[in-house]
Amino acid sequence: MTNKWAAVATVGCALAVSVSTFAGIGEAKADQSPWMIRGRAIIIMPQESATVGAPLGGDVKINNQVMPEADITYFFDKHWAAELILAVSKHHIRATPSGIDLGKTWVLPPTVTVQYHLNPDSQSFRPYIGAGVNYTKFFDQSGGDPAITKVRLKDSVGFALQAGFDVPINDHWTFNVDVKKVWMNTKATVEVPGPDIHASVDVNPVIVGVGFGYRF
To answer: In the chain, what are the domains?
Structure first.
């Protein structure tokens, strides 16, 4: 995990410095649209923990995943904005320490945050912070150990925190780095011969994204 964080930080800083070198220095247009879209490459890093019922017991391990992400932002004024984040990812779940394969699941976690942009008029560095709510839908569970008939995961609602920055390239384009922490809990039911196994799973991913935005 340490190596992954170091790689993400190194790439993000290098790109930010490169883009800053070529960023435009003119003032933003006064009639700029309130709408902005971004596209990012994100790495989703679950900070998982679980309480797994008998007879399985133990914990779970959920793999990291790299996926594309899109978001739509609406600016109420220079400082305040709302952002809708859209992405979908597929994750592999294993029981620990037994190593039993619990299969794979698709995750759709639309998230809405309200942002405060600290330095919106800067032509070199525009940081922001945000907070909001996440709804996660788990679907299309598949695979797993042959002894497991099915794994069912309940949808989740939780809080989200966000911090990031934009580096202007010109009046419309920006380079973006974004970090989110999402609180995500699901109730899992593992169907096996005999009584079902129940678990409470905290996924709680940290999501780091790097990409570009376009302000209309």
So the answer is: 2-215 (2.40.160.20)
